[in-house]
């Protein structure tokens, strides 16, 4: 059978017209135009699938019992004066070094923990030499000089809370009470003399339970002589089965169960922190004190502080390739504060005996029972994409998979004919 006769039997619209000499000059351009249109629509469909294959649907849920957030209370970056006096009195000094000079420059040691602390490199090198002489590390010295939890937090009270224990690794605090009349109350010691605002304030932050605490993060600053109300609420993110089956590059998120190199779960913050650590290790051959310390690595010393500061990566910057997690809980807080007044008689016994001028009261509570959840759904999966592409070619040409077999047979006969002509 000749190729023209095969073309006449091809199972797509207009194929028999191409085999007819009188009409092929009309049908050939028309079929080429339709072919171009079909290919254009297919390319547009595939591009849409690759660029934005999912959409978000909001679902509101009401909880009778909610998990209470983790409350992080961070002492001021500035070291306690009495602790610094005690430190310089107890350490041993190498030749050519005295306690007067060390006491003067010792506050600069906090530069290892915060970029807000000004320092002189030669002074930090002297402090490092003193720590090495006494067999101390920067982390150890920082713990000695920083206020402890007992010194920072004078009093706490949990109202209407109930403890629910799971496994030994899962220990959460749950509450069925919502609003400002319930939650956690803290009395924070503010007797330390305030100097530079950026390093002498305490702050509080709320996070989901069992969350890695990055000490370089920030929170709500606590002013002495005031009461701070921290209203906590959250928004959930989930993913549907269809969207979950897509590749992470298509759905533009990773599952929280995906393990990272240094963290047992995925999160945008964790991924960014790992990139920051890798960037610091690559440029400076060390990691900062507030980084998790991978095995075989060392903490950046004074000479590399400037290098490590330049290697930092902002969580919200476009310089990181870390997408959001598909299933996680994003937290929000609404903070307000009120001045504590000694002349006002307090009803709650929690305030009894507190010096309002040297204390901050923190009240953390869950704002509402309702939690919106954004669920990621897919427009279509791989099978739907295949069906749409097949439908387009069917509309334009009446094609099917069997049609492709017929076209392959036609191409095979043409190739065989060409080979026979060359031999002859």
From TrEMBL:
The keyword Transmembrane applies. GO terms for cellular component: plasma membrane. It is a multi-pass membrane protein. Keywords: Ion channel, Ion transport, Membrane, Sodium, Sodium channel, Sodium transport, Transmembrane, Transmembrane helix, Transport. It is found in: Membrane. The chain crosses the membrane at residues 25-46, 392-415. Its main location: membrane. It holds the Pfam family ASC. One of its GO terms (molecular function) is ligand-gated sodium channel activity. Gene3D superfamilies: Acid-sensing ion channel domain, YojJ-like. PANTHER family: AMILORIDE-SENSITIVE SODIUM CHANNEL-RELATED, PICKPOCKET PROTEIN 19. Belongs to the amiloride-sensitive sodium channel (TC 1.A.6) family. This is Uncharacterized protein. The lineage of its organism: Eukaryota, Metazoa, Ecdysozoa, Arthropoda, Hexapoda.
């Amino acid at each position: 059978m000749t190729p023209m006769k095969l073309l006449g039997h091809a199972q797509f619209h207009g194929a028999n017209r191409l085999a007819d000499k009188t009409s092929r000059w009309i049908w050939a351009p028309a079929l080429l135009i339709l072919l171009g249109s079909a290919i254009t629509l297919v390319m547009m469909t595939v591009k849409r699938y690759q660029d934005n294959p999912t959409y978000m649907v909001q679902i509101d849920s009401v909880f009778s019992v909610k998990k209470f957030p983790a409350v992080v209370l961070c002492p001021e970056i500035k070291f306690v004066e009495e602790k610094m006096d005690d430190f310089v009195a107890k350490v041993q000094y190498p030749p050519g070094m005295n306690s007067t000079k060390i006491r003067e420059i010792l506050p600069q040691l906090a530069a290892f923990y915060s970029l807000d602390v000004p320092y002189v490199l030669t002074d930090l090198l002297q402090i490092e030499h003193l720590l090495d002489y006494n067999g101390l590390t920067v982390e150890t010295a920082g713990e000695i000089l920083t206020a402890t939890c007992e010194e920072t937090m004078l009093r706490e009270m949990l109202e209407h809370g109930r403890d629910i224990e799971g496994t030994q690794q899962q220990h959460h605090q749950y509450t069925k009470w919502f609003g400002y009349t319930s939650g956690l109350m803290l009395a924070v010691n503010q007797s330390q003399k305030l100097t530079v605002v950026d390093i002498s304030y305490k702050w509080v932050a709320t996070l989901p339970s069992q969350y890695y605490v990055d000490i370089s993060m920030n929170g709500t600053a606590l002013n002495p002589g005031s009461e701070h109300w921290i209203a906590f609420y959250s928004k959930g993110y989930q993913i549907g089965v269809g969207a979950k089956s897509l590749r992470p590059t298509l759905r533009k998120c990773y599952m929280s169960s995906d393990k990272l190199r240094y963290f047992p779960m995925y999160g945008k913050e964790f991924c960014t922190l790992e990139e920051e650590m890798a960037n610091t290790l690559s440029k400076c051959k060390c990691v900062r004190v507030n980084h998790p310390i991978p095995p075989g690595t060392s903490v950046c010393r004074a000479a590399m502080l400037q290098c490590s500061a330049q290697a930092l990566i902002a969580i919200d910057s476009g310089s990181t390739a870390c997408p959001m997690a598909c299933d996680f809980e994003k937290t929000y807080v609404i903070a307000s504060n009120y001045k504590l007044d000694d002349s006002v008689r307090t009803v709650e016994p929690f305030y009894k005996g507190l010096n309002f001028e040297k204390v901050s009261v923190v009240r953390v509570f869950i704002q509402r029972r309702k939690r919106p959840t954004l669920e990621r759904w897919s427009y279509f999966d791989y099978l739907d994409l295949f069906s749409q592409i097949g439908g387009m070619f069917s509309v334009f040409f009446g094609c099917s998979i069997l049609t492709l077999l017929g076209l392959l047979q036609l191409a095979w006969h043409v190739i065989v004919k060409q080979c026979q002509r060359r031999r002859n």
